[in-house]
Write a structure and sequence with these properties.
Blueprint lengths: L1 E4 L5 H10 L9 H10 L6 E2 L2 E5 L2 E6 L2 E7 L2 E6 L6 E2 L2 E2 L5 H22 L3 E5 L5 H4 L4 H9 L3 E11 L4 H6 L3 H13 L1 E5 L6 H15 L6 H12 L4 E7 L2 E11 L2 E9 L8 H15 L4 E7 L6 H11 L4 E11 L4
Parallel strand pairs: 6-9, 7-9, 14-15
Antiparallel strand pairs: 1-3, 2-5, 3-4, 4-8, 5-6, 9-16, 10-15, 10-16, 11-12, 12-13, 13-14
Helix pairs in contact: 2-9, 7-10
Length: 338
């Protein structure tokens, strides 16, 4: 078997594999790898992703980004995705369990080798609850492999809505206060959804304008915004705007892949107070996704490891839309116990 580093020449092959493998979701894609590479300006993120190939056939892909994280004057080098966990290795669907176990041994040894070479403090890996194998509860092989290489478990939870249910049933499960906010928003705000059929550079510039108004001038590369715009144009992601008197006061970005969706980010006009912007946007997005036959909507991770007040407030907001809080595995390995 060959270990082949990922380079620009292999992006198309990598993405074709992502579309087919039941282990993958959007986080494995080259778009997300490139997004992370451009998200942190300094120090630069190093892409160490690689393939496993045998007899000119692709067996597995392994996303792996080396990030240098500065926190409270402490600097760590870690395998992570914008400070979050790396998606698990993904296998070709034709492989048997014994074949996957054999390849996993090669993969995890290579990750350990790279960790030693690059002086990595720790690594984290996670399986997306939107992947086919997670939804079908085919997780045991991955769990076993990481455990055998001294990774330990971190309990992580996420909020997922099953959009195959009747819309009235979905709304019944929404918290009472959220329903009141949605009703108020529908009376005072209008919304518009932009996907590949109606997105324009001018509309996307409005998104960037709200982002700057909320967070200030972006520190990340402009390439990250270009990736987002291209993904919308290419029938993947979508934006939902909220308007007050025809003026855009809020917008959210949603990722879509393999007929499931993830709540990516939001930015609201900081000068607008006491208006249910986010509630209105979420409900509009849910109705639209259901019309588009999106199966599952992951509204986002629940906080873990001593969350702060902001994280708790975000969690409370997300839980208000109902659905299920599902556990999924995150594995962590410490190379430097300091």
């Amino acid at each position: 078997m060959k270990i082949i580093p990922l380079s620009d020449n292999y992006y198309s092959l990598w993405d074709d594999f992502c579309k087919e493998s039941d282990d993958t979701w959007f986080w494995h894609s080259s778009d997300w790898l490139k997004f992370i590479s451009g998200y942190q300006s300094e120090p630069k993120v190093l892409n160490l992703s690689f393939f496993i190939e045998e007899n000119n056939k692709l067996k597995a892909i392994i996303p792996l980004m080396l990030e240098t994280i500065k926190s409270n004057e402490k600097i760590t080098r870690e395998f992570s995705f914008s400070g979050w966990a790396t998606p698990i290795p993904a296998f070709h669907n034709s492989l048997s369990s014994p074949e996957k176990e054999k390849i996993y041994w090669i993969i995890l040894n290579e990750i350990d080798r790279l960790a030693k070479k690059e002086k990595v403090s720790f690594s984290r890996f996670v399986m997306s609850p939107l992947s086919v194998n997670y939804l079908n509860k085919n997780t045991s092989l991955h769990l076993k492999a990481f455990s055998s290489f001294d990774y330990f478990d971190i309990p992580v939870y996420s909020q997922i809505l099953n959009l195959s249910k009747n819309l009235n049933e979905i709304k019944r499960n929404i918290r009472h206060g959220h329903k009141a906010a949605i009703t108020k928003g529908e009376k005072t705000l209008t919304t518009a959804i932009f996907d590949s059929f109606n997105i324009t550079p001018e509309i996307f510039d409005q998104y960037i304008g709200l982002y700057i108004k909320k967070f200030g001038a972006p520190k990340r590369s402009s390439s990250t915004f270009n990736i987002m715009f291209e993904r919308i144009k290419n029938k993947n992601d979508f934006l939902v705007f909220a308007y007050q008197n025809k003026y855009p006061i809020g917008v959210s970005y949603f990722y879509a892949f393999k007929n499931n969706a993830f709540y990516g980010s939001a930015c609201n006009d900081p000068n607008i107070k006491n208006v249910p912007i986010s509630h209105t946007i979420q409900w509009s997005a849910i109705k639209w996704m259901k019309e588009k036959k999106i199966n599952f909507y992951e509204i986002g991770y629940q906080p873990y490891q001593s969350p702060n007040d902001k994280q708790l407030n975000i969690s409370h907001f997300k839980k208000g839309f109902g659905g299920l809080i599902v556990p999924f595995f995150m594995k962590e390995k410490k190379y430097n116990h300091e």
